[in-house]
Write a sequence for this structure.
């Protein structure tokens, strides 16, 4: 005789003991707000030339952006943009119009200019270690967004060809169906 599944309490239904889906979402929202902000007790000593050089070298590694988050909000031209949402929405689209592609290129150039400004600040700015870490994280996040946008343009370049081929296949199928209706 099989025992019926025991009743679960609220705590037992969580994947990780002591967590609930609502609590996890609350924690993620809090982390999103805190991302990039200085932490309490952060190092306020000036950055040394050796640390500066090490950070610059890390920033120029091939896959520095892996594991970094695209900034959730980013200020460009005095306006706060939901950069993370913009990148994900563009990646989710099947095809981009020429106007959208041009806007993506403009956004990429602005992000690249800001990333270069971050590099300059790391290279020659009078900054603390904590500020240097923030600038590094921002630059790496921007590199991630730029890389995503570049790959987006490359992937969506052939949408018109695919769209035309799909349309032709549908037209061919419709003409075959009409032919079959005529002969039967």
């Amino acid at each position: 005789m099989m025992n019926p599944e025991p009743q679960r309490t609220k705590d037992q239904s969580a994947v990780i003991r002591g967590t609930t889906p609502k609590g996890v979402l609350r924690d993620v929202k809090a982390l999103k707000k805190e991302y990039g902000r200085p932490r309490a007790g952060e190092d306020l000593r000036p950055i040394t030339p050796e640390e500066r050089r090490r950070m610059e070298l890390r920033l120029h590694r091939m896959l520095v952006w892996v594991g970094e988050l695209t900034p959730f909000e980013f200020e460009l031209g005095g306006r706060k943009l939901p950069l993370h949402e913009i990148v994900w929405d563009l990646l989710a689209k099947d095809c981009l119009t020429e106007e959208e592609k041009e806007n993506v290129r403009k956004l990429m150039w602005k992000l690249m200019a800001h990333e270069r400004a971050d590099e300059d600040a790391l290279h020659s700015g009078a900054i603390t270690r904590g500020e240097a870490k923030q600038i590094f994280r921002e630059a790496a996040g921007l590199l991630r967004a730029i890389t995503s946008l570049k790959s987006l343009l490359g992937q969506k370049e052939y949408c018109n060809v695919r769209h035309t081929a799909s349309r032709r296949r549908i037209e061919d199928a419709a003409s075959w169906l009409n032919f079959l209706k005529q002969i039967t």
